Amino acid sequence: MAGGLATVAYNSVFKRFSTTLLALAVGGFAFEFLFNKATDTYWDSINRGKQWKDLKHRYANKPSADE
């Protein structure tokens, strides 16, 4: 099973340098996207209630005393 999977991976991705380079570029982009999404989610969960996006509704668009 593993030998067949390695053969398929070699024939479809690693046989030509251009496809290897494309696979690395796509993999790098996907890793960056997923890593940023995961760290942003973690940061937001740790700092819930302390960020502007959580407090904006309290302070934004309130009518002032002059109006």
TrEMBL record:
Pfam entry (one): UCR_UQCRX_QCR9
Membrane-topology descriptor: Single-pass membrane protein
GO CC annotation terms, alphabetical: mitochondrial inner membrane; respiratory chain complex III
Membrane-spanning segments: 17-35
Keyword vocabulary terms for this entry: Electron transport, Membrane, Mitochondrion, Mitochondrion inner membrane, Respiratory chain, Transmembrane, Transmembrane helix, Transport
Superkingdom of source: Eukaryota
Cross-referenced InterPro entries: QCR9, QCR9_sf
Localization in the cell: Mitochondrion inner membrane
Assembly behavior: Component of the ubiquinol-cytochrome c oxidoreductase (cytochrome b-c1 complex, complex III, CIII), a multisubunit enzyme composed of 3 respiratory subunits cytochrome b, cytochrome c1 and Rieske protein, 2 core protein subunits, and additional low-molecular weight protein subunits.
Family statement: Belongs to the UQCR10/QCR9 family.
Function: Component of the ubiquinol-cytochrome c oxidoreductase, a multisubunit transmembrane complex that is part of the mitochondrial electron transport chain which drives oxidative phosphorylation. The complex plays an important role in the uptake of multiple carbon sources present in different host niches.
Protein's name according to its UniProt entry: Complex III subunit 9
